[in-house]
Design goal:
The complex is a heterodimer of chains A (225) and B (220).
Chain A: H1 8-47, H2 52-66, H3 70-80, H4 90-115, H5 119-127, H6 132-162, H7 174-185, H8 189-216
Chain B: H1 3-41, H2 44-59, H3 62-72, H4 82-107, H5 111-119, H6 124-154, H7 166-177, H8 180-211
Helix pairs in contact in B: 1-2, 1-4, 1-7, 1-8, 2-4, 3-4, 4-6, 5-6, 6-8, 7-8
Classes of the chains: A mainly alpha (225), B mainly alpha (220).
């Protein structure tokens, strides 16, 4: 056993490598969040559609995605999609899996956000003869976005913390880098601890950032123009 | 490989998954209650320890915690087998989220209940266990149910430290038979069924627990 001591020289040696892998982690999170927001909106609007079959099938799809593990979904996309002739890089697969998984979660946030708008607002929009697009764009979303920010932010942080699972399909993100460094040097203490601390720092910063974003949003809503 | 054989191998994996859930869930509940209550009622130094535990396990990823316990603890002379590492990591991780459930549920009990129990001269432990907790428990059930589903999903991570759970068996079969579509399809379905079973069980538990609360006549 190499015992209970922290090797600072080794720490400084591996830190730049882990930080460069952090870029991949952050990129996957960023692209994943954008896709998740888009998917979440699509699911939420499908849930509100007038067609009953569409509504019920969306409910079960969302329920299915939410109650199965992200890791298995990642494997599914990575191994099964090529059978249908769609081969994607590990990063693209990862972004797609994260976007789909968290899109399912976000759809519930968006749905309850939209449902939270008072009935009178919908009626007023109808009375003013606004089109459905104008109703969403000018009346509903400007009021609904602020209450959705905290929950959306929490899911994005949760997504960030699930990106290490992408190491299972050989994406060279922080954890995969730490694992490679660890197995080459037979020392896991420093790389894994560094990655853990970086995750903690990034998630605390993100939580603070989201709180700031929420505070900046006017309570009474804002114009999307 | 025939479909029946695939399913039977996967079932063996599913049993391991269920075993892990069965061991990690009690640990998570224990952590949630003990640290949730410490966070609320204990004096300063204990409270700080609880906050560090909660923030640390909620702020980093489950997979890193699992790797840390499995790969790094041996450096401190603590070697544990993969199964124990899995149960400890998942139990502590889900438990840290559970502390907030316990805290939130206790704080959501109306203030009048505290005041009434003080007015009636209950001791503080009677107040907690006989007045506050029975009401808080009902509020805890739905969020704890969601955490239980999160736990089932999180067990898939243990496949990455070579435990032969459902996901591990699926990966192994996929690598050897190349019938990836059927295999991962069946696995997703297995996890879905487990989660739906939990949802059903939690609903029953919720109705069962809320029954007693109606007796006082105040609750509708």
């Amino acid at each position: 056993m190499n015992g209970f001591h922290w090797d600072w020289a080794f720490t400084w040696e591996v830190l730049p490598m882990i930080l460069s892998a952090a870029k991949v982690t952050l990129l996957a999170t960023l692209l994943g969040s954008i896709l998740a927001i888009v998917m979440g909106l699509v699911f939420a609007l499908l849930r509100r559609s007038k067609s009953r079959t569409l509504c019920i099938s969306t409910y079960w799809i969302v329920e299915f995605i939410r109650s199965t593990p992200l890791l298995v979904q990642i494997f599914f996309l990575y191994y099964v999609m090529p059978e249908f002739g769609v081969s994607m890089s590990p990063l693209a697969t990862g972004v797609f899996a994260l976007g789909l998984h968290y899109g399912a979660y976000l759809s519930e946030v968006f749905r309850s956000g939209i449902d939270g708008i008072e009935k009178g607002q919908w009626e007023a929009a109808r009375a003013l003869n606004l089109t459905i697009i104008d109703t969403y764009k000018d009346i509903v979303l400007p009021q609904a976005i602020r209450p959705m920010i905290p929950a959306t932010g929490n899911y994005i942080i949760a997504m960030f913390k699930e990106t290490p699972q992408l190491s299972a399909i050989t994406l060279l993100e922080m954890l995969q880098m730490a694992k490679i460094i660890g197995s080459e040097n037979f020392r896991y203490l420093e790389p894994f601890t560094l990655v853990g601390i970086l995750y903690l720092v990034f998630s605390l910063l993100a939580a603070y950032g989201i709180h700031q974003v929420e505070r900046r949003f006017p309570k009474e809503g804002f114009s999307l123009k | 490989m025939e479909f029946g054989e695939i399913v039977s191998v996967l079932l063996q994996g599913a049993i391991v998954t269920i075993q892990i859930v069965a061991m990690a869930l009690p640990l998570a509940v224990l952590m949630a209650f003990s640290f949730g209550l410490i966070r609320l009622y204990a004096p300063a130094p204990f409270k700080q320890i609880a906050i560090i535990y909660i923030e640390f396990f909620r702020g980093t990823s489950a997979l890193i915690q699992l790797y840390w316990i499995y790969f790094v603890l041996p450096f401190f002379g603590i070697t544990i087998d993969a199964m124990t590492a899995a149960v400890v990591a998942l139990g502590l991780n889900i438990g840290s989220y559970g502390t907030e459930v316990v805290r939130g549920a206790i704080q959501s009990v109306p203030k009048g209940q505290y005041e009434a129990s003080i007015a009636l001269n209950f001791t503080s432990s009677q107040r907690l266990w006989r007045i506050i907790m029975p009401q808080a428990l009902v509020n805890m059930i739905p969020p704890f149910g969601n955490l239980a589903i999160e736990l089932v999903k999180a067990t898939s991570l243990v496949s990455l430290i070579t435990i032969g759970d459902l996901t591990f068996k699926a990966k192994m079969l996929a690598d050897t038979t190349l019938q990836v579509g059927e295999i991962f399809g069946v696995v997703l379905l297995f996890y879905f069924v487990m989660a739906q079973f939990l949802v059903f069980f939690i609903r029953r538990l919720e109705t069962h627990l809320s029954k007693g609360l109606g007796r006082g006549g105040l609750h509708s």
